[in-house]
Please model this.
Amino acid sequence: MDPKWFDAPEGRIASDHLKNCDHLRDLFEGYALGVLDAEERTVIEAHLATGCADCAKSVGEARWLVSQLAYMAADSMPSEMLKGRLMRKIRAEARDPQSAGRFKTSVPFWMWAGVAALFLVTLYLGWDAHRLQEQIRAANDQTAAQIQERTKSEERLAATEAQLANARKENAILTDPASARITLAAQNFSGPQLEVYWHAQYGMVLTGQRVPVPPGNRVLQLWLIPKAPGGKPIPSLTLRPDADGKFVLLVSHPPEVAAGTKALAITEEPLGGSSQPTAAPRWVGRVG
Model:
């Protein structure tokens, strides 16, 4: 035999004691809750009767933990093993009325009160979290609506400012003596004359009254005819007169200067305009 077996009997006893204690530690919470069966409860009580200080301390800690369950819902939860034992115990008692009576007497009133308090706290926390989520959602919806309304207001303001800027520019072109006045005469039909005021800095304004409205989705398009030999017509903006045949067209940045332009022409084109004329001019006016 190994001589060490005789030399350290206290170590052997302590080791055996530690091993005997280890298999009981997982039962202390169930013991404190009163959900162990009679055999398990008897084993623990017999072991505690031997005066094991470590196990007595562990049982005391388990009892304290159980007593604090109602106040520790957010931070401390029973182990999965303990919850499984508790559910098995409840199902067993439900099938056996006599054992159910014993179970009821083994669970003290304060423990049921703690479980009830824990349940109420859980319900309240769930309700409060839902209420906060609804408030946050409502606040987000309100903020999004305000942002959308502010965006629309800014767009309306920008459009109004652009209209005012165009109106000021049109007025400057029409009233400035430096603007060149160009008359466009109707070609091959008895239509009204159109007038163009061309300012070297601000651009040109094309005006007309009692102008026939093009059929369907067709539009009128302005063209600049260059002086250079063989130069192709330069496309400009499109327009449609209103129901009374009136229109005012501002061309802020003409593609050509007046000095390089021989004439202005207007044709009838498909919606969106064309890169080159697709029909004969309906109005023509010489520049200079």
Summary: Helices lie at 4-7, 9-22, 28-33, 38-49, 53-67, 80-95, 97-106, 109-175. The first strand starts at residue 180 and ends at 186. The longest helix spans residues 109-175. Residues 1-19, 99-105 have pLDDT under 50 and may be disordered.
